[in-house]
UniProtKB/TrEMBL annotation:
GO molecular function: ATP binding
SUPFAM superfamilies, alphabetized: P-loop containing nucleoside triphosphate hydrolases (SSF52540)
Bilayer topology annotation: Peripheral membrane protein
SMART domains per record: AAA
Name the record gives this protein: ABC transporter ATP-binding protein
Keywords: Antibiotic resistance, ATP-binding, Nucleotide-binding, Transport
Limits of the ABC transporter domain: 8-241
Tagged with keyword Magnesium: no
Gene3D superfamilies according to UniProt: P-loop containing nucleotide triphosphate hydrolases
Amino acid sequence: MSDRGPAIQTHRLAMQYGDTRVLDDVTLSIGTGEVVALLGPNGAGKTTTIEILEGFRVPSGGEVQVLGETPHTAGEAWRARVGVVLQSWRDHGKWRVGEFLDYLGMYYTDYATAAVERPWPTTDLIERVGLAGKTLRRLDRLSGGERRRLDVAVGLLGRPEVLFLDEPTAGFDPQARRDFHKLIRSLSDLDTTILLTTHDLTEAEILASRILVLAGGTIVADGSPDDLRHRMSATASVRFRRDGHLHTESTDDPVSYLRSVLAEPGEIEDLEVRRASLEEAYLALVHQVETGADTQAASFGILPDEATETGDETDPTRAREGA
Ligand SMILES: Nc1ncnc2c1ncn2[C@@H]1O[C@H](COP(=O)(O)OP(=O)(O)OP(=O)(O)O)[C@@H](O)[C@H]1O
């Protein structure tokens, strides 16, 4: 992470659809060049959050800044610095890969600077996203994985400073997923700030240096995958056989427990001490939030302590549009 200040920042962000409050108090800060995964159960408000950051939705309350501007009021010059990979976008089936990117790329020409060549030259970009050899392929003849690569190419066309990826690998087969991870990791040399949503904990761990968990309308965990695993899962499971009998124990202090076990007479076999996996830690955290139990989140990440402000209703005038 660089020290150039946050690329993305929200303070007590709130979002209400009719009577339903989806985001209650989302406060986060993402530094330039960070790759961050936003996780949360279905309906937690991940897409809503991303769409506010993209400028497609107006929040009901709170503040939001992306690259120093308020997204829903920012102009075209700001938009040219932001890349968006939507969950799905409208078809342009008869276009061919190369001509489609060439056409969209024209939009960025005016936003080129001495430091940043815009648009990304189509031939290079096609190669970078792993579509070499597909330049003349019609979009409606691309496979699902190839199509998603094209989505990423569209998101990268303007060499964005911030890239939003909403469930980028949904529906991918394992190979396509692996290729996609390689592609995203290869972008780290561009210093692009990336915020992605996913339900795949392994993907979050592979791609992101930091995980944010959104649940109950707020960020309940914020840290590295290791932080999440260790801080949210103090409990370890200890399993062993003594004199042929199986013993299992869940304990918050496996070292002391093991000492007491070893002090007892009898031969120990098949000893196994296991920390919760990242997925188990995540599921436990979400369960705690959903059932209102103590989340330990205060010691883990951001937990603003003031009441949430409310503001204007959703502005539906900026409809979400594909490329
Ligand atoms: N335009 C809308 N009008 C009313 N309710 C909406 C609207 N958009 C989203 N919602 C509701 O807001 C909640 C959050 O939706 P959102 O799509 O942001 O969640 P999510 O975390 O991305 O979910 P998923 O993991 O299922 O994609 C859901 O209950 C959804 O039904």
